[in-house]
Amino acid sequence: MKLLGISGTITGSKTGVVVRKTLEEVKQNYPDIEIELLDLKDYNVQFCDGRDPSTYTGDTKKVIDIVSSADFYLIGTPIFQGSITGALKNLFDLIPPHVFRHKVMGFIATGGTYQHYLVVENQLKPIANYFRAYVAPGFVYVHNDHFDGNQIVDFDVLNRMSILGEEIVRMNRALTHQPLGMSHNYG
């Protein structure tokens, strides 16, 4: 199973830090899961112009292929002007909707105000619903105050990142009928 982390911005580094750290946590707890990070700043992706996605070339084709090959997703975006980034929206526009159908998505957002967490509820989850993807019940919002430079220093945020990683793995395994692993004995 391949988990793709997406840092959905071409500027800044904090979103990538959070996505990368969460992927590392998943890999530590579930070494059998293949993880990959798609950092949009590393690619020169064309704007979606409505053509058949198979006709794109270069970095745009690479990105479409990377996203299409994943089994489930951890998607991060900074919040700019009360919205997801244009780069992430463009990525969603480039990917054929069937690619995301019945796949699990977990969301991470970073921002400078405490109200920006609402973008996950009001924008990202509806996009996932359009794709008919399964959305993890929790998500992680990281405010600038939770960082010291590019280090996450808030224990609660680190804990929520761990829980989100656990949720997306468990959901993916349950929905694809794989053993859940890390089972807990409650009796």
Your description of this structure?
With 187 residues, the chain is an alpha/beta fold. Helix content is 38%, strand content 20%. It is built from five helices and eight strands; from the N terminus they run βαβαβαβαββββα. Helix 1 crosses helix 5. The protein is globular and about 45 Å long. The relative contact order is 0.19.
Please provide a brief summary of the model.
With 187 residues, this protein is of the alpha/beta class. The protein has helices spanning 14-29, 58-68, 86-94, 118-131, 155-175; strands at 2-7, 34-39, 72-78, 104-111, 134-135, 140-143, 147-148, 151-152.
Roughly how much helix do the residues carry, as a percent range? 25-40%
Helical stretch count?
5
Order of helices and strands: EHEHEHEHEEEEH
Rg result: 16 Å
Strand fraction = 15-25%
SSE layout and pairings?
Blueprint: E1 2-7, H1 14-29, E2 34-39, H2 58-68, E3 72-78, H3 86-94, E4 104-111, H4 118-131, E5 134-135, E6 140-143, E7 147-148, E8 151-152, H5 155-175
Parallel strand pairs: 1-2, 1-3, 3-4, 4-5, 4-6
Antiparallel strand pairs: 7-8
Helix pairs in contact: 1-5
